[in-house]
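Anyone able to model this chain together with adenosine monophosphate?
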Amino acid sequence: MKLIFLGPPGAGKGTQAAGVSAHLGVPHISTGDMFRSAIQNQTPTGIEAKKYLDAGELVPDSVTIAMVKERLSMDDARNGYLLDGFPRTVDQAIALDEISAPDAVVDIDVPDERLMSRLTGRRICGKCHGTFHVSKLTDEHTCPICGGELYQRSDDHPDTISTRLKAYHASTEPLIGYYKGLGKLRQVNGDSQLEDVFKAILATLE
Ligand code: AMP
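re: yes, here you go
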């Protein structure tokens, strides 16, 4: 199955994608993770993308589409994919339709007023890459799953979050109409318990 997770930053796309991709047996492809890893490895894509990630702005379509095209040509994506964070513009969606069109698009909906606290309180494990919220942690520096060290993403700070939310509303939200028009859109309420959102996603895919 070829699947897209749509939704604002902080909707829980990454967390849900980890479980759903394992369930469906398709690779979880996160463009945000790909950019962060390219930045860490100082590749040409990483060097180009860094200023946009630091500012909370979208990386230009040409760079992003080329990176995704290469990733989708790899063997593990032959039988499908779960894209998390791509497409984020209508031009990216049109390009994806030409590369390998999705079967379904799940829009995980969470109201704006919930997103700021979700993102400012988000902590990530440097070892197992699990995502947690400080309100649920007894020790905000240590991963409750593997004991790894938790960190805060550099773009999870209020100013950058506002820019990311603006970019979502201006450039990504129009994709809801785009995929609705193609009859591929499924909508799920993301403002509830993780397990309930997971079940709602699987139910909408049946
Ligand atoms: P994410 O981890 O999905 O929140 O993405 C983090 C950052 O990576 C975004 O704020 C953008 O700067 C960049 N990014 C990720 N995916 C895309 C995309 N599809 N198009 C443009 N920029 C992206």
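Residues 9, 31-32, 35, 52-53, 56-59, 64, 85-88, 92, 155, 164 surround adenosine monophosphate (CB under 6 Å).
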